[in-house]
Design brief:
Strand content: 35-45%
Number of domains: 2
Distance between the termini: 18 Å
Radius of gyration: 31 Å
CATH topology of the largest domain: Immunoglobulin-like
Helix content: 25-40%
CATH architecture of the largest domain: Sandwich
Low-confidence stretches: none
Shape: rod-shaped
Length: 230
């Protein structure tokens, strides 16, 4: 993950602060091709946090409306245009969380879920408390950029699985060879016994050959995958 600030602090009001708001970037989780970006917000002192704004997709604004799946506060989904808004509010584009935080309930966890996975970048942030003006901090914290993270194909894992299966088949072939050698070393072995052992080995090797054909087909399909930079 590219380096960007993991925390930002707002002093309210800046000249003689009576409250401190701290926003911490808690990281990104990816599930089913979607990314969840979470931030914990803490408040000490008064006034409490009225609202705050997170910059997102600032140079590809149209994507935010398209890709935003949900916004949650402590796991509860917020209602768009009632509890959160999307737009350009104080000189930068992003998500405005209209449900704030009082010191008694902090920290509060805010999460946004986006369709797709995006490279993190440094984004602007803003916060407002009580009657004080909204305070903006440029390049404040990690947020989603317009750069999509390319999907990584598990080519190495597929190749490793084939190699492990090949190793297993090699052990089976070796064991069948030892079975024939052992039979030939027996003093009282008959031609009928050797024929029975030979048929048993042939049956096993026939199944091994079928598995080898499957593995060869799998290897050919892996070779067709497009995986730049693998």
């Amino acid at each position: 993950m590219p380096e960007c600030p993991k925390s930002v602090t707002f002093l309210i009001p800046p000249n003689q602060p009576t409250a401190v708001y701290t926003i911490n970037f808690e990281g990104v989780t990816v599930e089913n091709g979607n990314s969840k970006w979470c931030y914990s917000v803490s408040v000490t002192g008064n006034p409490g946090l009225s609202n705050w704004i997170l910059g997102a997709f600032e140079i590809c604004e149209e994507l935010l409306e398209q890709k935003l799946i949900s916004v949650t506060r402590n796991g509860v989904e917020l209602v768009k245009n009632v509890q959160y808004e999307i737009g350009n509010f104080v000189g930068f584009y992003g998500i405005k969380f209209d449900v704030g935080v009082e010191k008694e309930e902090s920290p509060v966890l805010y999460c946004i879920t986006l369709e797709g996975v995006y490279e993190p970048t440094t984004v602007d942030a803003a916060a407002k408390g009580g009657p004080t003006p909204t305070q903006v901090i440029k390049d404040a914290i990690c947020g989603p950029s317009c750069q999509v993270v390319p999907e990584k194909l598990p080519v190495a894992d597929l190749l490793e699985s084939i190699a492990l299966q090949e190793a297993g088949l090699a052990h089976i072939i070796n064991a069948e060879g030892e079975k024939i050698q052992k039979a030939l070393e027996l003093k009282d072995v008959t031609i009928e016994d050797i024929i029975k052992v030979n048929k048993s080995v042939s049956k096993v090797l026939g199944k091994v050959i079928k598995l080898e054909i499957v593995l060869e087909t799998k290897l050919e399909e892996i070779g067709k995958l497009s995986c730049n930079g693998c």
